[in-house]
Amino acid sequence: MSYQYIRFFDEISIDDIPLVGGKNASLGEMYQKLGSQGVQVPNGFAITAEAYRYILDSSHSWDALHATLDGLQIHDMTNLAQCGRKAREIVYAAGIPEDLQSEIISAYQQLQQQYGEGLSLAVRSSATAEDLPTASFAGQQDTYLNIDSISALLESCRRCFASLFTDRAIHYRMDHGFDHFSVALSIGVMKMVRSDLASSGVMFSLDTESGFRDVVFITGAYGLGENVVQGMVDPDEFYVHKPTFMQGHHCILRRLLGAKKIKMVYSQGTTHEATKNVITSAKERQQFCLSDADVLTLADYAIKIEQMYSQIAGENRPMDMEWAKDGLDGELYIVQARPETVNSQKQGMLLEEYKLQGSAKIATTGHAVGGKIAQGVAHVITSTENLSEFKAGEVLVADTTSPDWEPIMKIASAIVTNRGGRTCHAAIIARELGIPAVIGCDDATAQIKTGEALTISCTSGDTGIVYRGKIPFHVERTDLAELPRPKTQLMLNLGNPDLAFKSSFLPNDGVGLARMEFIITEYIKVHPMALLYPDKVKSSKERQEIAQLVQGYNSPTDYFVQRLSEGVGMIAAAFYPKPVVVRMSDFKSNEYASLLGGSAFEAKEENPMIGFRGASRYTHPAYQEGFELECAAMKRVRDEMGLNNVILMIPFCRRIDEGKRVLAKMAECGLRQGKNGLKIYVMCEIPNNVIQVDEFAKLFDGFSIGSNDLTQLTLGVDRDSQIVAFDFDERDPGVKAFLKMAVEGAKRNGRHSGICGQAPSDYPEMAEFLVECGIESMSLTPDTIIKTTLNVLEVEKRLAE
Fold first, then answer.
1. Catalytic residue of the set 441, 653, 684, 756
2. CATH classification of 196-332, choosing from 3.40.50.300, 1.10.260.40, 3.40.50.720, 3.30.470.20?
3. 2.60.120.260, 3.20.20.220, 3.20.20.60, 1.10.10.10: which CATH number matches 483-800?
4. What is the largest CA-CA distance in the chain?
5. Which of 241, 367, 379, 425 is the catalytic position?
6. Model confidence over 167-217: pLDDT tens digits?
7. pLDDT digits (tens, 9 = 90+) for 287-344
8. 3-state class of 494 per DSSP?
9. For this structure, is 66 an active site residue?
10. Which of 224, 319, 729, 766 is 20 to 30 Å apart from 380, CA to CA?
């Protein structure tokens, strides 16, 4: 049957935005082109923008709309609400002409023939200025779910058309320079995916926080997707690394369990609301809402969708997508896809680094959004009725936000919410506005009072911190486009996986030291031997904490291997394919003892710095099984995740025989030197490493000088002792002699030489000395990489003269 005002998805392409709006055009494009590639999109039809204009023409409503909207004052919230309500009433009262009703009913019946009599519908608005690369218009108009009758369908359509004039949509259009009468509304009517019986969420083909483009970032929760989009729940999060996925390594890079305290389902009975929120069960909260296979299927969808849109655009086009899992057929569907509109619009290579210059009491913490610092007076808003009280420059503190809040979000200095994840409404709008937000604090509205001064810091990775009072801060800006690369490789020291994506944008040649200790302390928290032998942990409180941490994993050892591999994997993926040197665990016995359950497995040593640490532990009966877990995690990173840019490094290897035993143990664990390109370095931090550099070079592929320990052992100074710490100085002539010998010895044997100690970060003259020695690489802290790059460029220029 041919229709005048209806187009089915198989008749629509991305070129039809003026006719069916951005959302419908995108659904049609995917339905036609990606179905054969396995990407599932529910079928449906669009009621065209021409139908919207036909309705207003037939009812002679244009003059009334002009009279209502032409004199609107955008910043007058009361005026905005009055005009918006009147405009909606005008459009709703226009009704739907009979011939258009007949077409809608016929199309619905045609869709029923495909899906069966039990078909329920999602009725979604699709504006003709929506889902553009520069403005998303996300959430500005209304959606109606679980529509299962002709009368309900027609009523939903009338309400959808009227929703072109919601207060938020009016404000958004005026704010972005769109004329109300040049924008029209199409409606998408599609098969309802029964995610109320399963799960749903949002995913991006980049990391939303840093703009890092080599991952798919997926968020999800149980029930209908509105809770994830509006930030009503703290969702599960998943990352998949695109380059290795496309090479065939189908492995989740990292997963984070969200609280998922509620889920949205359909209402039953006499309630007028179509949906309601119910409490999730303890079992649901303790497990992920998606299986690993589901996550990887969604990643595959995201990559294919991004590739299709990039081909259409003629440039890389990161995408923002909504997905839903049907609890009836078990299938995953894409229900929306639009261009990502924040990170993809950033121009140039200007690096901004925000740095606090002090500290204060913490009011609350949550997920960090925006990577910036802001200050202002708190204003706690508990109801939309109080929005007009909010003043420009204040910090918005709320339980959560919705599109209705956008007029005041636009004038806020920062946003803090109780609920939500990093793809919720508040997070997306904060990024779009370029302001920091701390999302999902749980207790923000209870801990913060209106009128108190706050400092919002989102510069510490995933954790955003709300400080009481105003803390001084400064911003450093560097134009990376004008910064040349030195011949000496300048790498990064990094331990925190949360900072990896952001740090990857710094000028670098990879990671010279990825500290395993940070990941074990922050992400695992448990002594590996306590996971293997929990019965030996004497404290019942610690046993209970350990049992709680490993809940949801196949075994305690799986917990260790998965968490460690995901932490290292995030760092390796951020810099792929550049080299990432991962140092195997280098805790001292007292540091191991401080881990959960650690005191049961660690002896007390008078001087742990030169005690049971590094290589000596790896083949010792007291820790050998723990080292085997470390090796299993690194094997997973390289083999399963496909991150073969990881180079492993052995710390504190005192003697040649010790090195041989460790390499044999690693080979036994599947980490054989040379296999799949595996390189194994050794830390050069003991005088014996320098004295016997030629012998160590026969075992290892490279040396990384640990100047901190080498200085301590050369000068016999404990830098942690307040009494003698003043004598600790890497610039001492004896230390510099050892450094020179190490570099020359590595070069003599054709081995890599680098330094990962603090010296070149702290002292420009040490960086200069090392360049003169001919060192191949220096690994620096992220905050000194630019300053040292400039210094090294000057040294290299002088040496070349």
1. 756
2. 3.30.470.20
3. 3.20.20.60
4. 94
5. 425
6. 888 887 887 778 888 888 999 999 999 999 999 999 999 999 889 999 999
7. 999 999 999 999 999 999 999 999 999 999 999 999 999 999 999 999 999 988 777 6
8. strand
9. no
10. 224
